[in-house]
Amino acid sequence: MSEITETDAAAERNARHKRAMQRKKEYIDGNIAAATIDKGLLLVLTGNGKGKSSSAFGMLARSVGHGLRCGVVQFIKGQWECGEQMLFGEHPLVEFHVMNTGFTWDTQDREGDILAAEKTWAHGARLLQDPSIDVVILDELTYMLTYGYLDKEAVLLALENRPQNQHVIVTGRNAAKELIEIADTVTELGDNKHAFYSGVKVQKGIDY
Ligand code: ATP
Ligand code: MG
User: Fold this and answer.
1) Which end of the chain has fewer CB atoms within 10 angstroms, the N or the C?
2) What is the pLDDT of residues 76-130, one digit of tens each?
């Protein structure tokens, strides 16, 4: 008797699951059908948590996998040999530029940093005018705006006037509100926990 009840309960549960999944599918299919626009996106990855640059380079890997032409401009970085540069630096589909000055608290040289920022930005500005480039990554760009090393208006204008189908990914903490306003997708990564604060040093493959 109890066996029949258990079978009935399982059948009822399975039927409920099927109805719920049917409703979910209708909802998701509806949303997919409503998303018909095809255009170049501006994505901003910001916040204090880990995962901004690595997310951007994940999208670079996807893009290269699809045969898209990509440009990478890394502001600040250059002290460590980053795995992403080792993999994509000489890739025929990727143009890769690194500012190479290191962190501002290491250089302690505002004028030198400004010159380096402007020189590096010139590559970004050119890529943002080139319709043959499908994806542009401006890694750690936000700091150049926070420190006032680059003219915010000029950067925003270059982003807005880029080719219609070009995707751009900007990373860095404290993204300016004007940048967030013109972006299509903004992700704020939260700093729930980081191994560094438990005394763990940077790890190859995970951190650089
Ligand atoms: P990643 O390149 O790993 O995606 P990120 O781009 O989000 O990190 P950055 O501020 O650019 O973060 O810092 C790069 C380096 O600092 C990496 O080694 C990363 O692990 C480390 N890092 C990132 N977030 C934190 C944090 N909240 N606390 C301590 N270290 C961090
Ligand atoms: Mg980063």
Assistant:
1) N
2) 865 678 999 999 999 999 999 999 776 666 667 888 889 999 999 999 999 999 9
Crossing angle for the helix pair 152-160 and 110-127, nearest 10 degrees?
10
Q: Which residues contact 203 (CB under 8 A, 6 or more apart)?
A: 195
Please tell me the residue having the least CA distance from ligand 1 atom 2: 53
Q: Going by CA atoms, what residue is nearest to atom 25 of ligand 1?
A: 50
CB 171 within 8 A of CB 54: no
Task: Read off the pLDDT of residues 141-173 as tens digits, 9 standing for 90 and up.
Answer: 999 999 999 999 999 999 999 999 999 999 999
* CATH (one of 3.10.129.10, 3.40.50.10860, 3.40.50.300, 3.40.50.360) for 38-198: 3.40.50.300
